[in-house]
Amino acid sequence: MLYATLEGLKRFKIPHNFEVVSIISLYAQWIREGRLKLDPSWNTEGLKFTVQDPCKLVRQSLGDPVADDLRFVIKQVCGEENFVDVWPNKSNNYCCGGGGGALQAGFTDNRRKHGRMKFDQLHATGADVVITPCHNCHTQVKDICAHYGGKWQTTHLWNWIVKALVR
Amino acid sequence: MPKGSVLVVGGGIAGVQAALDLANSGFLVHLVEKTAAIGGKMSQLDKTFPTNDCSACILSPKLVECGRHRNINLLTLSDLISLDGEPGSFRAVVRQRPRYVHPAKCIACGLCAEKCPKKVANDFNMGIGKRKAAYLSYPQAVPLKYAIDPAHCIWINRPGRCGICAKECPSGAINFDEKVQEHALEVGSVVLSLGFSRFNPSGLDFTGYGRLPNVVTSMEFERLLSPSGPSKGHLERPSDGREPKKIAWLQCVGSRDINRAGHPYCSSVCCMFALKQSIMAMEHAHGDLASSIFFMDMRTHGKGFENYYSRARDQGVRFHRARVHSVIPAEAEGDLKIRYVNEDGRVNFEEYDMVVLSTGLQPYKQTLELAAMLGLELDADNFLKTDSFNPVATSRPGIFVCGAASEPKDIPQSVMEASAAAVEAGRILAPARWTETISKHYPLERDIHAAPPRIGVFVCHCGINIASVVDVAALAAYAGTDPKAFADPTTGKELALAQYGQGADIIFHASGNTGKGVFNAVSPSSRKPCATRA
After folding, report:
1. Are the beta carbons of B206 and A92 separated by less than 8 Å?
2. A47-65 burial by CB neighbour count: b if 16+ within 10 A, else e?
3. CB–CB of A88 and B205 under 8 A?
4. pLDDT at residue B382 above 80?
5. Average pLDDT in the A41-59 region?
6. The whole model's pTM is what?
7. Nearest CA in chain A to B207
8. B329 close to A (CB below 8 A)
9. Which CATH superfamily hosts domain B1-97+180-196+363-440?
10. Nearest CA to CA, how far is B416 from chain A (Å)?
11. Domain B200-360's class?
12. Is A126 on the interface with B (CB under 8 A)?
C-alpha cells in the first residue's frame, strides 16, 4: 500500500497535501516523545531479535532512515543487547524472495531456492525472533524457516510492542 | 615587456617541480598552497612504484630546495581568489589564511603541539589517530613551521579559555591576532597543479566501508604501511591491532563505474598502487601474508610496469578477475567475507583479515570552482580540459596545467608535465627572464696567506635540546677566554671536539680567513640522545 501509493504519487506527479510515512517511523517518534512507553525487562530469557528489511519499505521507498527507526523500535522492545543485526542490512539487505507474486505463483521450489540465501543470512544471526514488517516477507521467511529447519519465530513488529508496552 | 614572474597554484609534487624549474630558469615564482605545508599526496605515500623507492626520500630534497629557494615565494594556507589580465600580464589576488604562528620566530621545537590540550583527528594520517590543534602536518613538512588549526583551537573559538601554546612557546611565535591577508601579485603566466581528491567509498555500502573497521581505502592503508604513520610502519588492522595474514584489494572502486560512482573513466594508477601495496604488505609480514587482488583488467601501462606486475605474480600475489558483490562480516570477529562472481559466472566466497579499496581519483570540488572563476573549460569528467597536441595548455591562454588536475596520472607523468608546463609558462615570458629574480652575491675574495688562522666555534642554542643541558652563554664566554687557543688550529679543534663531547648539538668550526675550512655539522634530532645524556 505504502510503496504503491508513494510510487503512484511520484510517477504521475499527482499533487497532494499529505505526507506518506511508515507506522514504524511513527512508533519511533512516539517513543522518542515519551508518548509510547516500552520496557524491555519482560525479556528475562534474553531472546535474540533480528530483522528483515522489506524491499518496498526500505530500499525502494523510504530508505535507511526508516530502517534505522525500525531498529530503534526493536531495541526498545527487546533490549539493546538482545538485537543482532543481519549483514548486509538496511538498503543493502537481501530480498526475501517471496515478493512480486512469487508466493502466489506456484514454482515453490524456485522460490525456496531463492530464499535459501535469506535463510542462511538469518540463521547466521542465531536469533530467536525475526521481525518482518511486511506481509510478503513474513510469509516467505516463515516458510523458509520451516522448510530448511530454522528455529526462530517469525512475527510482525506490533505483537512485541504489545508485549513490552508499559500500561 | 611581459612580467618575469609566474604563479603556481598547488604545492604537490607537480607544483613543486614546476616551481623549481621556473625559478631555476630565471623567473620569480609565487607558489600557492592551500594547506600549511607543501608536499601534497606524495608526502602521504610510503613507497612509490615501480621502483619501491621511499616516497619521502625522493620528495623531501625537492621540498627543501623549494622552501629555501630565493626565487620561490612560498604562500601556504593560501587560495587564488581572482585573476585578471592576459598572457604576460596577469594580476592575481591570493588570500592567505592566518597560521597563528609567526614563521620567522617559530623554531619548530614542537612545544606548542606537545602542550596543546585539544586533540583532533589526524588528517595527514587519513583520520587514523590524533594530532593536536597546534600541529605540524608531517615530520618533513616544508616550511618546518607549526600552525594552529582555527577549526579546533580552543582560544580561537573561545578567546581566553586556553592559550597554553602562547605561554609555552620559547620564542613568542604564537599570535592569535593574525588576520587574513590578501596579496596582489603581478605575474606573466599561471601554472595550475591542483592535484586530485580521492573517491570517498562511503556511498558504496556493499563495500562495508565506514561500517566495517577493517575495510580501508588505499590511502589509509598507505598510512598504515608508512613509518611516519599511525602505527609507525607496523602493519596492524584497525579493529584489534592484530597483524593481518590475508588481505584483499578491490580494484576500480569509484572508477569505471557509472552505476553508483558516476565515474566512467579509469583512474590509471590504482592497478599499480595495489600491486605495490600487496608486495609491500608481504614484505612487512616477512612473507607470512597472502595478498589477493580482485580486478576487472590489470592496466599496467607505464615504463617497467608490466615487469612489476609479473614480479608481483611471481612473489605470490593472487589475481582474481571477478566482480565483487559485497563485503560482509565473517564469523570470526573482525574478519571479512567477500562474495564475488568469478569468470565462469559462479558465486564464490572467500574470507580475509582486511580489505583495501583501491579508490579512484577525482577532481577537487575547489577545482570546479576555480575553473568557473577563471573561465576554464572542463572535460566530461570535470577535469581541466586540455588538447592532445597541447597537453599542458588550458582553454585560456597563459594558464597552464600539470599533474592530475587534467586527468588521473601517476607521479612520473605528473613530474614530466610539470616540467613541460614550466617551459610553456616561461616561453611566453622569455624577454623578462632574470628581471625579477634575486641573484646570489658572494663576498670578495681577500689575500690572507700571511694572516694567522682563526677558528670559530658555533654552538646551536635554539630550542631546548642543548640549552636545557648546556649553559650556552657560559660556554661561549669560556671559549673566548684564551685567544691563543684560537690562533692554533689543532688546539681549536680539540676544544671544539671537547664541547661536542659535552653535548653541544651543532658545532662547526672553520679556520676562517685562512682560505681553508673544516665544517662539522650534525642533525639536531640525531644528536638529541647525546645532548640529553651530557
Report:
1. yes
2. bbbbbbbbbbbbbebbeee
3. yes
4. yes
5. 94
6. 0.82
7. A88
8. yes
9. FAD/NAD(P)-binding domain (3.50.50.60)
10. 44
11. alpha beta
12. no
